[in-house]
Amino acid sequence: MAVFTEVSDNEARELLRRMQLGDLQSLRGIEGGIENTNYFLTTDQGEWVLTLFERLSAEQLPFYLHLMKHLAHAGIPVPEPQADRNSGDILHQVCGKPAAVVQKLSGRSQLAPAAVHCAAVGAMLARMHLAGRSYERSQPNLRGLPWWNETAPIVLPHLDPAAAGLLRSELAYQNHIAASSAYAALPRGPVHADLFRDNVMFDGEQLTGFFDFYFAGVDTWLFDLAVCLNDWSIDLASGAHDAERARAMLAAYQGVRPLTAAERELLCAMLRAGALRFWISRLWDFHLPREASMLKAHDPTHFERVLRQRIAHPLRLD
Ligand SMILES: Nc1ncnc2c1ncn2[C@@H]1O[C@H](COP(=O)(O)OP(=O)(O)O)[C@@H](O)[C@H]1O
Ligand SMILES: N[C@@H](CCOP(=O)(O)O)C(=O)O
């Protein structure tokens, strides 16, 4: 469980009172997650998730919270942030940290997905991209290329020569891709940018929601799709591509929004970009850890393997 900040029952009661969400019955720290402090709040009116933001600032947060609200209103199943009944604000303060209370989604994460789950994620991802076109706020993906360039020199001293060589050469390749005309032609908009298996809820084969939008930002839609393919349609042990699950996700995505010529051209490059992004962030979290109770850093070598697989076996679109 990642609980960086302990919240007392009294603090939770005071927050619930301001939002008129009922009387507190239980406050429980949530297992899983590595970025923020999360609690389940149960009241006599329902269940909610309280998040205290540990890295994001009050200036950055409205983009994410209003995006969730916008998508929820557009019919995409995402948790809707709850407002203070007097001020109407959806960004709160708890224990001196910016905080949000959102609806608790039903269902559970599907950690061993089949093709049917990948198809459901692909179709909903495309619907989410289209719904995001009318969202007016803008904020870059804060874990995009500039952050990779900034963070690579910090993690490089911790790597052996082979891994360091791969990181340097892939970063050079991604800077080259980002300067290309095909890249400039990619459609873009608000993207989730971290839609892994543990950030989607299912009830059986029925997708019940996308959550954890706190790495979202304006970026290419293709990057978002690549991040999903790199998690949902690979063999976790080896990092190898799983053709059946990838085909299901791509076909379902394209059933809603067909890929453009530039997207088809750059899919392999973006799969590599998605692997590099999470390799760097996992290295950073692993070698420069933060204090939190029961925080479990993700294994960085997993994304080194995924990246090597993506380079050695470029995906072919039929
Ligand atoms: N809106 C929600 N509905 C249901 N469960 C949630 C919701 N938000 C978070 N959770 C639960 O909390 C866990 C950690 O949340 P997550 O957003 O991944 O953490 P972090 O903000 O640290 O990335 C999730 O794996 C999930 O079980
Ligand atoms: N999905 C990322 C890191 C963020 O993890 P989350 O559990 O907080 O969504 C990874 O796997 O590296």
From TrEMBL:
Its EC number is 2.7.1.39. Gene3D superfamilies: 3.90.1200.10, Phosphorylase Kinase, domain 1. Signal peptide: none annotated. One of its GO terms (biological process) is threonine biosynthetic process. Keywords: Amino-acid biosynthesis, ATP-binding, Kinase, Nucleotide-binding, Threonine biosynthesis, Transferase. Pathway: Amino-acid biosynthesis; L-threonine biosynthesis; L-threonine from L-aspartate: step 4/5. It is an enzyme of class 2 (transferase). Residues 27-258 form the Aminoglycoside phosphotransferase domain. It comes from the Bacteria. One of its GO terms (molecular function) is homoserine kinase activity. It holds the Pfam family APH. It catalyses: L-homoserine + ATP = O-phospho-L-homoserine + ADP + H(+). Belongs to the pseudomonas-type ThrB family. HAMAP family: Homoser_kinase_2. This is Homoserine kinase.
